[in-house]
Amino acid sequence: MSNLLALAGVNTRIGPYHILQGVDFAVPRGGLTMLLGRNGAGKTTTLRLLSTILQPDEGTATINGFDLVEQAPSVRRSIGVSMNPGGIVLTVMPRGPSSWARALVNPTTPALAAE
């Protein structure tokens, strides 16, 4: 099975600051991945990179087999992105967002009881 998205050795700088360093991960088709981390961990930067708003300074990144740098228009045509300025406010631990995401993927799956 091929990967829906893959990042390998991705580094991104803004000015002298290393925003992402050595990011490596892949999501298989049909898979679900969540980016969890504290403020400043690089979650938003990674999403901006995956949606072609930013480009990596080093490394490779693909979505649906399209290179994010060389084939950015094809990447944009093959994805949908909705980024909320304030994010999604969740007052639960990581298990909560994962059940929320599962419900998005499969609306017939009941959410986990109060977590």
Structure description:
By secondary structure, this protein is an alpha+beta fold. It has 2 domains: 3-83, P-loop containing nucleotide triphosphate hydrolases (Rossmann fold), CATH 3.40.50.300; 84-115, no CATH class. The chain is 23% helix and 28% strand. The protein has 3 helices and 4 strands. It has a 4-stranded antiparallel sheet, with helices on one face. A hairpin with a 2-residue loop joins β3 and β4 (66-67). The longest helix is centred in the last third of the chain and has 11 residues, at 95-105. The chain starts with a strand and ends in a 10-residue tail after the last helix. Residues 88-92 have low confidence and may be disordered.
**Tally of separate domains:** 2
What is the CATH topology assignment of the largest domain? Rossmann fold
Amount of helix: 10-25%
What is the C-level CATH assignment of the largest domain? Alpha Beta
How far is the N terminus from the C terminus? 33 Å
CATH superfamily label of the largest domain: P-loop containing nucleotide triphosphate hydrolases
Which regions contain 5 or more consecutive residues with pLDDT less than 50?
88-92
Order of the strands making up the biggest sheet: 2-1-3-4
Portion in strands? 25-35%
CA gyration radius, whole angstroms: 15 Å
Shape: globular
Class based on secondary structure composition and strand pairing: alpha+beta
- Please state the average pLDDT score: 80
Task: Count every helix, treating DSSP H or I runs of 4 or more residues as helices.
Answer: 3
Series of H and E elements: EEHEEHH
CATH architecture of the largest domain: 3-Layer(aba) Sandwich
